[in-house]
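User: quick one, fold this
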Amino acid sequence: MHSTKSRRKVAPNGASAAVDYGADSADKLEQLLLSSAICNNEDLGPFIRKAFLSGKPETLLHHLRHFARSKESEIEEVCKAHYQDFILAVDDLKSLLSDVDSLKSSLSDSNSRLQSVAGPLLSSLDAFLESRTVSQNVNLALQSLANCIRLIEVCSRSNYHLSNNNLYMALKCLDSIETDFLDKTPSSTLKRMLEKKIPEIRAYIERKVSKEFGDWLVEIRVVSRNLGQLAIGQASSARQREEDLRIKQRQAEEQSRLSLRDCVYALQEEDDDEDDHNAPSNDSNSSFDLTPLYRAYHIQQTLGLEDRFKQYYFENRKLQLTSDFQVSSMTPFLESHQTFFAQIAGFFIVEDRILRTGGGLISKLEVENLWETAVSKMCSVLEDQFSRMQTANHLLLIKDYVSLLGVTLRRYGYPVDSLLDVLSKHRDKYHELLLSDCRRQISEALAADKFEQMLMKKEYEYSMNVLSFQLQTSDIVPAFPYVSPFSSTVPDCCRIVRSFVEDSVSFMSYGGQLDFYDVVKKYLDRLLSEVLDEHLSKLINTSVHGVSQAMQMAANMAVMERACDFFFRHAAQLSGIPLRMAERGRRPFPLSRARDVAEDMLSGLLKAKVDGFMTLIENVNWMADEPPQSGNEYLNEVIIYLETLVSTAQQILPAQVLKRVLQDVLSHISERIVGELYGDSVKRFNVNAIMGIDVDIRLLESFADNQAPIFSDGDANQLKMALAESRQLINLLLSNHPENFLNPVIREKSYNTLDHKKVVIISEKLRDSSDRLFGTFGTRGAKQNPKKKSLDSLIRRLREVS
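Assistant:
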């Protein structure tokens, strides 16, 4: 078959049409446009609409017929061009008809043979397909059965874990059922049952975990209290070991002064080793069980309720802490303070453990907020309770426990400065209460004093009353029974003051202030100078009525001077201050007023006693014919009394105290002698009487010199200097040149204690032996004595000066 040639659409030539038909140009143009639109398969609607609108559809029909006639001729030309090819194609088709018939018969025969052969095969195929379908159904059933068996096994494991309270594994089984089996379960009944039971089981687990967590919250409060008490007890034990170590160090320091350094430090090393072995382990704080809490937290995480459980935990613990802040008004705080603070300490020890091991159950910021709340409440409680307390010991007990609480919680990283600030704030109140207690105790101790030397029958009494306060004057232990130079007041007061020092140091220790010796020293000064000194002075002024009592108090004050040194050393040692630094800042004797009152009382009583003997001076013959050889009677009595006094006083009074007392008494005797000559009772006297007084003063000076074995030479000279006024007056009256008193140099050297007014009055009383009654008549013309002349000149000059 030959292929047809391609045809090209040729539009009729408008110009030739115009030449052929001779129509007008408008019709030709319209015909040309219509032909072009038809050739280009354009829409003829516009041409039709135009023809009908113009009312000339015939023209359009004419143009269309003209176009058809032009196309028929063109078709004819095309057919003429392809006629031969069409004839050839028809011939070819006719030749193929015979071949098609033979092929059809061949195909029919092949089909018959195929049908006869494929029949049995189709039967076998149908049987095979049916068997395969049955096999697939059986396999599907087996697979479904296997899935069901595995599902039942997982359900069984879930029930087993639930029965054994292994809730986490039960939840994991439920998750496995949901993800691996629920969508693949062939049984709709089983699937509905699982969809119903799984939420119920989860709700049951959540309720059970919540109940266990609630039980743990109840139990942890008791555990926290015990835990806090245990932790604070360990801190107390550690503090006690530190105190023991300080005591050993102080002992080493004391003994090192005795050149025993090496063996002391050897013993110290052994003791330290023992302490290291006996030190309790800090692991005892880990005895509380957080398993229920962590299991609940883990289960809640598995259930997808982690954030809700965190909030629930925090709110419940916050409520517990708030309830722990309640202070019972029915129980004294002194009895409940340990439980109160131990409960809070245990609470935060538990929270610290949960913060470190809880996997984010509670944040550090939340713990810090709880701690700030707790510190604020504890400070408020302490402020309130301290303001009500009126007993120093109660305040000290609570302070010690609070400081132990601070030490305990500081180990866990909690800041405790605010608590320590509250303790420091009440430092003054505590010491005021302590001073009040000591004032009462001292008053009771002094009221019980019998002003008798203390008898110690056993060595332990000596150690308890003397050595423990370093009152001994010798390292040699005396023989027993031992009579001390002081009365029972001294060790009683020493015990009170030592207890004050220890209580003060105990309050200041572990309170956040490292160097507190100055504070302890300040309050110790107040105790000694304001309390003890005042009570001793009052006791001396109101209860001392005899020389023996006054002497005992003077002896007590001398011993108390050594005791005060011990108090300040003891305070320095307890405060951790080296003794050399404490001794560098020593202050004057704080009981100086009581000491002066005691010595003045003793001197006053002795003066009164001496005055009794001095009344015998009235028996002196002031116009004696001869001077007495052995002194006047009054002085002999005074000397005997003074010698008896010294023999008794030197057994209990220190040498310096005895010297001051004797010096005061001798000065008083000297003043009495001068006063007697100056007073109105003696109208006149002669040289013989003055020579007798000179003998008296020599006896007193001899008495002073005889005290040299008791005192040093310088002290003996000071005793003699107490007689300076009477000695200088007698020397002036017995001098051959009394006018030398007017010489400033000689006066300053030999008569510096004399008052010129007294000298004038006493000198006027001096008479010669010839100045007896009626003696002037026989000596009217006699020559005047040069000494008398010099004395008269002295009197005249002194009167001119005055």
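User: anything notable?
Assistant: The first strand starts at residue 455 and ends at 456.
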